[in-house]
Amino acid sequence: MAKKKHKISTLKYFLRSLKQIYMLITFKEKMVFFLLVLMAVFSSFVEVMSLTLLMPFITLASDPSRALDDKDWKMVYDFFHFSSPVRLMYFFSFCLVGIYLFRMFYGVSFTYLKGRFSNKKAYQIKQQLFLQHIKSNYLSHLNHNLDSLRDIINNKAEGMFASFNAFLSLLTEITVIVFFYSTLLITNWKITLVFTLIISIQIFIITEKITVLIQKKGEIAAKSRAQTLKVFSKFFSNFKITKLKDNHEEAHKLFGENSRKAHDTEIIYATLQVVPRYSLETVGFSLLILAVAYILFKYGEAKMVLPTISMYALALYRTLPSVTGVLNQYNEIAYNQLATNIVFKSLTKTIVEEDLVPLDFNEKITLQNISFAYKSKHPVLKNFNLTIQKGQKVALIGHSGCGKSTLADIIMGLTYPKSGEIFIDNTLLTNENRRSWRKKIGYIPQNIYLFDGTVGDNIAFGSAIDEKRLIKVCKMAHIYDFLCEHEGLKTQVGEGGAKLSGGQKQRIGIARALYDNPEILVLDEATSALDNETESKIMDEIYQIAKNKTLIVIAHRLSTIERCEVIIDMSQHKDNLG
């Protein structure tokens, strides 16, 4: 019972992968795909013709005078008015060479078009995955760690691309088989059916045993690669801790174990991929050899069946690789079914579309009856009301977990409330204007993220580089003098800002927040990790910068918020929730 279940499961996964691949192709791409299928059919026809013409060529080459005894050859001979059978042989030779030249150019062109189509689709899938995840809402992003995103966009996308390529090759090989099989049926349908029965039993055994194993190995490889990325990030993202703990041996062991699993499965997969080929070729040609041996044993010669045997030998020589190809492509799709499924779910996941409808902020931000709760948790906010006047300095205080950062995320339009409304002046904040609203906000977190690049690139953070604006915000953030002592805006910060002090990183964070000239500044525990002297200096600078801006400060230290006009204790609201 278990074996039968595995068989059905493998076929189900295979069909699901094909369906998912097909659903991700646009109508225009389906038309191109259909043309490629037609090209594959014609390619198969050329393959069959180039091989089937070899037999009459060999026959004619052995005795050109036979052309006068054969009805078809005689018709060609008379039509072109050849002076001798040898000249017919020359003509046929040139025609056959022409066919093989055409076969070569057509095959190369078809391979290029097929590769171009599949690689272009792979590129589009990666672009769509990147866009899908970067457009996803903030809460959805929190549910994905960075390693899983890297794995999906790189490894899983490559796995789906391999399945997509395999799908195209599968159809090509099937058309080759159909053409050759039809030719063999016409030649001798009885022998062909006997061959079919034996080969079919063998294929059934291969798919029953090998494909199930390949599918399992594919899942192990996919999970091992994802785990390898996690191990890499775990130890290299916290390199100082790794060095202090001196656990490089443990890191090396974990990385090695997961890498070995992935590579071991690749070895097994590569080995299993050639089993169908050798198995089918051994059985197919063994049957052919035994048939010849039997005819020699019974009749003493095989001259009368030599053309038929030669035809089967040529057909097997070309068809068996195609049968093997079909099995290999089937196994390839089964091997990558997990990757295909993950990519498909990512691409078909509904995301909330947000627009850039202009939004003015001249008077106030109003929150009415805002309620919010994380999944399977008690409410963080319930019927919360707040009004922030333009230019006001507002502090959000309270113990950890009371909802300060959550409220700030809702105000910034990063998180959507479960109920309630937010008004900017008298305009309701919706998905149509949410992106415009976020462009008005500069955000300074506690931990400033800096990537390995220049100060200028880190401040602009993907926005267009404007050197004058960069210098201006660097001066406002009081980091410009430090940069002048080094390489200016081209000063390298190191991975995570490793080459900078905590205060310098914080100033770059301030410059980044100011770069797009926001109307609102949000400080989320922005100075809590700094010493009192550095914090006091930076807060003086921030209050000076935010003189004509709306400022929202999340903090624990009273010294940080002493100049705020409105102080909201979120702990009291949390206590009221019970």
Automatic annotation (TrEMBL):
Residue ranges of domain ABC transporter in the record: 365-577
Keyword terms of this UniProt record: ATP-binding, Membrane, Nucleotide-binding, Transmembrane, Transmembrane helix, Transport
UniProt cross-references to CDD domains, sorted A to Z: ABC_6TM_PglK_like (cd18553), ABCC_MRP_Like (cd03228)
Compartments where found: Cell membrane
Membrane-spanning segments: 88-113, 160-181, 187-207, 278-297
A molecular function (GO) term: ATP hydrolysis activity
Chief location bin: membrane
Name of the protein described by the UniProt record: Multidrug transporter
Organism this protein belongs to: Helicobacter pylori
Lineage: Bacteria, Pseudomonadati, Campylobacterota, Epsilonproteobacteria, Campylobacterales
